[in-house]
């Protein structure tokens, strides 16, 4: 195996979220490399149904930080919001006197979510290769409508998540993830794996990880988080179906 391939695999397998950055903006070249990698991601049917908004205005950054409840949303070298975007395609179709109903179907949003997520992962991998840290911010969904208003998003768009980038000022341990024993099946989904696989060993790894963290140390585990599940549907996140409909994704 070549050294370059090993390097890429190491970047993927050793990735960890960085939440503390040095107080400086990314260089223009570093920012360009990250966004270029993002736009090079695979895309469904060549529709390229994802867009990115760079948030450079400190006031908007601070408002997003308040929505997210995370100070590092305002304190980073680059903040990008990844948008599932069918507005562009609908506008192009209208200019050609073609109003395709497909853009208002659930499959349209699913494809846009896939496109946009691949863009973000490319950006994350590019930043890691440049020794730049990053963290995904699903917390913008704490108040999706306010994010839509702040960023002046038109219909047929939806802010999936943000990503903060910066020169790392922290080196957290790698968070243990479920491996192929729990998540890789052959030919069909094995519903028995929940009963046949003992999660205790993995859960202990997660507990040890949280206990040993230098920052955000806490007494927690994978099983506890999944069983409680409340953090996934708190507050205004319950309004997302209505907001999607208002944005034009009305499932007709």
Automatic annotation (TrEMBL):
InterPro entries reported in the protein's UniProt record: Flavin_OxRdtase_Frp, Nitroreductase, Nitroreductase-like
Record carries keyword Oxidoreductase: yes
Gene Ontology molecular function terms on file: oxidoreductase activity
Record-linked Gene3D superfamilies: NADH Oxidase (3.40.109.10)
Pfam families with a match to the protein in the record: Nitroreductase
Domain Nitroreductase: start-end pairs: 12-167
Assigned keywords, A-Z: Flavoprotein, FMN, NADP, Oxidoreductase
Keyword check for Oxidoreductase: yes
Family assignment from sequence similarity: Belongs to the flavin oxidoreductase frp family.
Record's protein name: Nitroreductase
Organism: Holzapfeliella floricola DSM 23037 = JCM 16512
């Amino acid at each position: 195996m070549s050294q370059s391939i090993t390097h890429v695999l190491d970047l993927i397998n050793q990735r960890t979220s960085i939440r503390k950055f040095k107080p400086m903006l990314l260089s223009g070249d570093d920012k360009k490399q990250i966004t270029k990698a993002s736009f090079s991601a695979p895309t469904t049917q060549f529709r390229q149904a994802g867009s990115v908004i760079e948030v450079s205005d400190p006031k908007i950054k601070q408002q997003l930080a308040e929505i997210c409840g995370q100070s590092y949303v305002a304190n980073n070298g680059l903040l990008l919001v990844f948008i599932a975007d069918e507005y562009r395609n609908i506008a192009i179709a209208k200019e050609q006197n073609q109003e395709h109903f497909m853009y208002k179907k659930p499959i349209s949003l699913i494809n846009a979510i896939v496109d946009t997520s691949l863009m973000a992962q490319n950006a994350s991998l590019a930043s890691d290769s440049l020794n730049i840290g990053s963290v995904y911010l699903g917390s913008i969904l704490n108040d999706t409508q306010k994010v839509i208003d702040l960023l002046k998003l038109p219909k047929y768009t939806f802010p999936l998540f943000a990503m903060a980038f910066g020169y790392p000022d922290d080196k957290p341990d790698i968070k243990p993830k479920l491996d192929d024993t729990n998540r890789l099946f052959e030919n069909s989904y094995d519903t028995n794996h929940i009963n046949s696989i003992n999660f205790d060993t993995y859960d202990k790894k997660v507990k040890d990880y949280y206990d040993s963290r230098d920052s955000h140390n806490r007494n927690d585990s994978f099983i506890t988080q999944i069983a409680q599940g409340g953090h996934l549907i708190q507050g205004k996140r319950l309004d997302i179906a209505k907001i999607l409909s208002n944005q034009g994704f009305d499932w007709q």
